């Protein structure tokens, strides 16, 4: 099997919304104190949605277009958002848990305000206790594991929670701090770019329910043996503009021919993927139905200055997961035993 190069072959600029020139009133939408996102969650989300209505028109227009039409990369990069005052003094949380030193919620507000224009924020009970705003940082001992706390191994391409009945339509990554060496790239590959590299025969196979996917490590599949009982097609929707179910690490084919098609897709992704080095104040929106994502390897130092992102998940329709949520809560409690 060919190895995937660490540097993409086709670097290209994605669609960028530059927020670096916000006026004072707009900055205040993000900076002015409000409800506590961890204690008064629903109030916080409503407050953020109302604030987002007052964001400049060009930001709302870009988010609306991305929500409705997406784009060929399946990502939208919002650059130069406000950050928490004094953030540079706060250490990266060593266990990728909530930071007790972070007592302002500007980053959470960025995620909730931007997310509110794409849909509704949700979380999963198995991940970070169901926090809506999840800290991603390198954690000692997981350097070579396929999880968000890994570092020294490339995080393989995946759609977020392929195995789950209620996966997010969008994934948001907000960068609070890049890695020391500015090495870490968030990698992404869209089905729009990969599809033309696949033969008709391989596309036919990928459109059929011939694929099985495992349960994520973070959902309790520690020994990597737990398989989802769902048999899925990898491609679905419109033949010329399909959606993509894919997990490089966890997906297997049920027939030798289907395996060949999956390998062809893996190779296509290796050719078309691109990478972005996120910087402080960058918020990356990923269309989780069209684009798989991963991360290059990087070297953590565990000195309180390591790479620190916050992540949120967005669904278009809260009603779909209502059966697995408690009233008034955003935490999806589907079990996988
Ligand atoms: Fe992910």
From TrEMBL:
UniProt entry tagged with the keyword Iron: yes
InterPro entries (alphabetical): AlphaKG_dependent_hydroxylases (IPR050411), Clavaminate_syn-like (IPR014503), TauD-like_sf (IPR042098), TauD/TfdA-like (IPR003819)
Cofactor(s) required, per the database record: Fe(2+)
Keywords annotated in UniProt: Antibiotic biosynthesis, Iron, Metal-binding, Oxidoreductase
GO molecular function, one term: iron ion binding
GO BP: any one term: antibiotic biosynthetic process
Sequence ranges assigned to domain TauD/TfdA-like in this UniProt record: 74-312
Family: Belongs to the clavaminate synthase family.
Protein name: L-asparagine oxygenase
